[in-house]
C-alpha cells in the first residue's frame, strides 16, 4: 500500500508538485505549482491530468497539499503539522514561534 492508499499526508512546494504529479497520485485531482515563467509548469501539471488552479497559492485535495512558490513553505508546514497532529497543537506552535494565529 502506498501513502495515498493509506491516506497519509503528502506535501509539495513549488515545482516539487511536478514530482508528485508525475507519480500519478494527483491525476484527476486539484493541485498547483510554480506560476512563472509563462505557466509552463502549470501546463506540465495539466498534461499529467491535474486540475490546476492557477490563482491559488496553496491547494489541499484530500491528503495532498501543493503550493505555487517557495514563499508558501511555512504555510504548508503548518498545514502539514495540523494534519499530522491537531489544530490546537499547530496553533500553539505558531504562537510560540511568534506567528499570528488569526
Automatic annotation (TrEMBL):
InterPro entries: Class_I_gatase-like, DJ-1/PfpI, INH-QAR. Residues 3-82 form the DJ-1/PfpI domain. Gene3D superfamilies: 3.40.50.880. SUPFAM superfamilies: Class I glutamine amidotransferase-like. It holds the Pfam family DJ-1_PfpI. This is DJ-1/PfpI family protein. It comes from Enterococcus asini.
Amino acid at each position: 500500500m502506498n501513502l495515498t492508499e493509506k491516506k497519509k499526508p503528502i506535501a509539495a512546494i513549488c515545482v516539487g508538485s511536478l514530482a508528485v504529479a508525475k507519480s500519478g497520485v494527483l491525476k484527476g485531482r486539484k493541485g498547483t505549482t510554480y506560476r512563472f515563467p509563462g505557466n509552463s509548469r502549470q501546463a506540465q501539471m495539466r498534461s499529467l491530468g491535474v486540475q490546476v488552479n492557477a490563482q491559488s497559492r496553496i491547494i489541499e485535495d484530500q491528503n495532498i497539499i501543493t503550493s505555487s512558490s517557495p514563499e508558501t513553505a511555512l504555510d504548508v508546514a503548518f498545514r502539514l503539522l495540523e494534519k499530522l497532529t491537531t489544530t490546537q497543537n499547530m496553533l500553539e506552535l505558531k504562537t510560540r514561534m511568534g506567528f499570528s494565529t488569526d
